[in-house]
Amino acid sequence: MPDFFDTELRVGEIVKAEIFREARKPAYKLWINFGEEIGIKTSSAQITALYTTQMLLGKLVIAVTNLEPKQVGPFISEVLVLGVDGKNVGDVILIAPEYKAVIGNRVH
């Protein structure tokens, strides 16, 4: 069984966001920059209730970066962006640093 502390959480910056038209449930395709060590990774995220693609550009997020890539339809999701449930069903609020953080830094 994997140890919780093996989970690698890092700060990334969304550099590209598109509507994931092929997804069964409304979602976006995200490209997230994690800095020189990791580079840009992709993620599929069902966050369309509270965010537009324009709102996401430049946004800092926290993501799990050491999971196996997952095939989501025709798209490969390489990292898992973290969020919490909002007031309404389907509202997902992204978890993000309160202050400008260094891209790629690990969460402690």
Largest sheet, if any?
5 strands, antiparallel
Indicate the mean pLDDT: 94
Overall morphology: globular
Structural class: mainly beta
- Point out poorly predicted stretches: none
Helix content: under 10%
Radius of gyration from CA coordinates: 13 Å
Number of helices: 1
Tally the beta strands. Answer: 9
Oligomer: single chain
The CATH top-level class label: Mainly Beta
Order of helices and strands: EEEHEEEEEE
Span between termini: 21 Å
How big a fraction of the residues is strand? 35-45%
Q: Can you put this structure into words, describing what you see?
A:
With about 110 residues, this protein is mainly beta. The protein has a single domain (about 5-95), classed as OB fold (Dihydrolipoamide Acetyltransferase, E2P) (Beta Barrel). About 5% of the residues lie in helices and about 40% in strands. The strands form 3 sheets. Strands 3-2-1-4-7 form a 5-stranded antiparallel sheet. A two-stranded antiparallel ribbon has the order 5-6. It has a two-stranded antiparallel sheet with strand order 8-9. Strand 8 and strand 9 form a beta hairpin.
Report a brief summary of the structure:
The chain is mainly beta and 108 residues long.
Describe the SSE topology.
Elements: E1 9-19, E2 28-33, E3 40-45, H1 53-56, E4 60-64, E5 70-72, E6 75-77, E7 80-81, E8 83-85, E9 92-94
Antiparallel strand pairs: 1-2, 1-4, 2-3, 4-7, 5-6, 8-9
